[in-house]
Write a structure and sequence with these properties.
By secondary structure, the chain is α/β, with parallel strands linked by helices. It has helices spanning 13-28, 40-51, 85-91, 102-113, 135-142; strands spanning 2-6, 32-35, 56-60, 74-77, 94-98, 117-121, 129-132. The chain has a single domain, classed as Rossmann fold (3-Layer(aba) Sandwich), CATH 3.40.50. Helix content is 38%, strand content 22%. The chain has a 7-stranded parallel sheet, with helices on both faces. Helix 3 (85-91) crosses helix 4. The longest helix has 16 residues, at 13-28.
């Protein structure tokens, strides 16, 4: 299964810790992590996935592979800015939103529009998101697809 972890390029230490644990658990379950490939939630999730022995894919907004955080195994250069969110959403089997602002909201909206499951930890409170309070709950939810 390919699991997207979506969230902001900047985040608090608390949200980074949650994203790290999400990434690690994804890898431990032998799933592939896909994200936007930059910093913040994305970097923390990729670092967790690498520590868990997993594979990470970063769908980058710019024109250079060097933009990827150091924990991305497969950087995919798009030169599409936020439009890359559609690639992340279409590629993922399920999405986990950790925190995030408008870019994350756009990914959530795209996912819900095509009936993809979105699990949320401390993110937007909108209809369609399965809100959970812990990483354990998030993992249980993604395994239900």
């Amino acid at each position: 299964m390919i699991v997207a972890v979506i969230g902001g390029n900047y985040c608090s230490k608390e949200m980074a810790g949650i994203a790290y644990e999400v990434g690690k658990r994804i890898a431990e379950r032998k799933h592939i992590l896909i994200c936007g490939g930059l910093g913040g939630v994305m970097e923390a999730a990729c670092r967790g996935a690498k520590d868990g022995g997993g594979l990470t894919i970063g769908i980058l907004p710019g024109k250079e592979k060097i933009e990827a955080n150091p924990f991305v195994d497969i950087p995919i250069v798009t030169a599409m800015s936020h439009a890359r969110n559609a690639i992340i959403v279409r590629t993922a089997d399920v999405l986990i939103a950790v925190d995030g602002k408008y870019g994350t909201l756009s990914e959530i909206g795209l996912a819900l529009a095509i009936d993809k499951k979105v699990v949320g930890i401390n993110t937007w409170d909108i209809e369609g998101i399965i809100s959970v309070r812990s990483v354990d709950e998030a993992m249980r939810e993604i395994e239900r697809i």
